[in-house]
Design brief:
Helix content is 44%, strand content 12%. The chain is an alpha/beta fold and 565 residues long. The strands form three sheets. It has a five-stranded mixed beta sheet, sandwiched between helices. Strands 2-1-3-4 form a four-stranded mixed beta sheet, covered by helices on one side. A four-stranded parallel beta sheet has the order 7-6-5-8, with helices on both faces. Strand 11 and strand 12 form a beta hairpin. Helix 11 packs across helix 14 and helix 19 runs antiparallel to helix 20.
Length: 565
């Protein structure tokens, strides 16, 4: 149905050899009649592939927001000390981007095996296990959560909404219900789902696609992992309904490669659906067709951007496309495509089974529906919680997540990872919905809440977040590629006593350039962590720049001041 074969071939080669030998890529080029430069270009783009032989053991310590707050830097330094005498051919200890385990920080990847809440002793033991050639243990699976209000089938048969709409075959009525509910995209963008499906339905042509974006890779974002574990049937049902409503007969479930457990859960559910006639050429005896396949991402945060994700599906480098045209008109293989997030698809059966009024009544303060949010960082009970849309942030932090660790006070929080920037504790009563957060210059995004306690340096947190964007930039457009690196350079200088008031003008220029000229949201939001810290924690920043002093004692100013003395 689509051509991800280049990735299948590359994975097979790497599985056999541990990397991608040049002669094997040349043979692949000849066998598939694919230009060698294209194969190299694709393999070189994705972090999952290795063009040279890697060390026997690679230990990647997540360096991003939640893990940074929970001791990742010390863990990495400790591991480096443990294996300092070993050859780089045997062990490599390095930083790695978010592994989607923010509620179990710090997280580590040992030869692509992911572990949560790793101590130095545990990390050392895992590396030694791999060095000894022994099989690494699997991380225990998340426990399944029961009695979720979002489940419209408590104790009953699944796929009831699908059966109902097939019986009625009133596709316009489904779109009308989605519009009336106010369901918006819950992956971050917030575009109305009913409008998107209607655009694809009206688009000309017999070939269309439905795509689920399960590539959540932004620091703090863990709620899709939870939904796929607990409600996989709702996501698949939402995709099938989207296919029938829009006229698409082909579905692609795009999942990040680090989510091995969720991948297996989805494979089992898809196989069951085919066995029971819920998927295939005769959906529930209707004569209608909808086929669904999993596409495992080759890696990279940029794949979460919808057009970059589409490029990856097509077997290319995941570089964002210029828009317009938008995916609803030219998506997968330039065919009309309904592309939504995991949580958005999971909401569709809720609305169709329980009704629009029920859906609206689940929210608070004028917001509609339920929302899954992930919360991590300096809280006692990090995790994923099901909340009414519109619930105050303070309820999530101090009630559901148990408050701040070690009895400390709240200093700041990011409503949705680095893209949303940081807000001060004084704004903790803001409601978690699109309008409320937009009104104070932030955003609901995907609901990835990261909490900072008193004692955290907000300039250090801004630097950490901007580094993430720098590391994950695809490099396609110059403003993002160069601008994010320059911003990291400036912030690094500020945290080390090399700041100057003259830097502010350059920061302003970089911010505007990134916002106005970057192709996709990564570059457009790369400034957000710093911009928010400058807005709400300016005194702390000025202390670094003007006094060469970190008020919280986090940044390495003491050594700089002593050296100058």
């Amino acid at each position: 149905m689509y051509e991800p074969l280049i990735f299948d071939d590359l994975r097979a080669i790497q599985s056999q050899y541990g990397y991608l030998p040049g002669e094997q890529l040349a043979a692949l080029s000849e066998r598939t009649n694919t230009p060698l430069y294209r194969i190299h270009g694709v393999a070189d783009f994705y972090p999952h592939f290795h063009l040279t032989r890697p060390p026997r053991v690679t230990a990647g310590v997540c360096a991003d927001m939640s893990c940074h707050l929970r001791g990742a830097a010390n863990l990495r330094a400790g591991l480096e000390q443990c294996f300092r005498g070993m050859s780089g051919k045997d062990v490599a200890i390095r930083d790695i981007s978010c592994l989607g385990q923010c509620d179990g920080a710090p997280a580590v990847s040992i030869n692509d095996h992911i572990y949560r809440g790793v101590t130095l002793a545990q990390g050392e033991a895992l590396v030694l296990t791999a060095l000894g050639g022994n099989e690494l243990p699997e991380m225990p699976a998340d426990e399944k959560t029961l009695d979720l209000a979002a489940d419209p089938y408590p104790g009953g048969a699944h796929y009831g909404a699908l059966r109902t709409i097939i019986a009625a075959r009133d596709w316009d009525a489904v779109i009308a219900q989605l519009k009336a509910s106010g369901l918006s995209g819950l992956g971050g963008a917030g575009f109305p789902a009913g409008m998107k499906w209607e655009a694809v339905r009206r688009a000309p042509g017999p070939e269309k696609y439905v795509v689920c974006n399960a590539d959540e890779s932004e620091p703090g974002t863990i709620k899709d992992r939870f939904i796929m574990r607990n409600l996989p049937n709702l996501v698949i049902e939402g995709m099938i309904i989207a296919g029938l409503v829009t006229g698409a007969e082909k579905g692609i479930f795009y999942i990040r490669h680090e989510y091995h457990a969720q991948e297996e859960i989805l494979r089992e559910e898809i196989e069951r659906c085919y066995a029971e006639g819920i998927l295939g050429r005769n959906v529930l005896g209707s004569g209608l067709t909808f086929d669904l396949e999993l596409f495992v991402s080759p890696g990279g945060y940029i794949c979460g951007e919808e057009s970059a994700l589409i490029e990856a599906i097509e077997g290319k480098r995941a570089e964002p496309r210029n828009k317009p045209p938008f995916p609803v008109h030219q998506g997968v293989f330039n065919k009309p495509t309904a592309l939504n997030n995991v949580e958005t698809f999971a909401n569709v059966p809720q609305i169709l089974v329980n009704g629009v009024e029920w859906y609206k009544a689940q929210g608070q303060g004028g917001a509609a529906g339920l929302k899954f949010v992930g919360i991590s960082g300096d809280v006692r009970r990090p995790g994923v919680f099901e909340i009414p849309m519109g619930l105050p942030m303070s309820e999530v932090i101090f009630n559901l997540a148990g408050g701040i660790v070690d009895g400390k006070q709240l200093k700041a929080f990011a409503p949705s990872g680095p893209s949303s920037g940081y807000l001060p504790a004084s704004m903790a009563d803001v409601r978690l919905d699109f309008k409320s957060l937009a009104a104070i210059g932030s955003m609901l995004g995907s609901g990835a809440i990261v909490v900072c306690a008193k004692g955290r340096c907000m300039l250090d947190m801004a630097l950490n977040a901007v580094k993430f964007f720098r590391n994950e930039s695809c490099g396609k457009c110059v403003p993002c590629r160069i601008g994010s690196q320059k911003m990291v350079d400036i912030l690094t200088g500020w945290t080390r006593g090399r700041g100057s008031a003259a830097d502010m003008a350059l920061i302003d220029d970089l911010t505007e350039a990134l916002k106005l000229t970057s192709i996709c949201g990564l570059g457009q939001f790369a400034h957000s962590p710093l911009s928010s810290v400058l807005q709400y924690f300016r005194g702390e920043v000025d202390a670094h720049i003007l006094d060469h002093r970190c008020p919280e004692g986090v940044c390495p100013m003491r050594e700089v001041r002593e050296a100058r003395a």
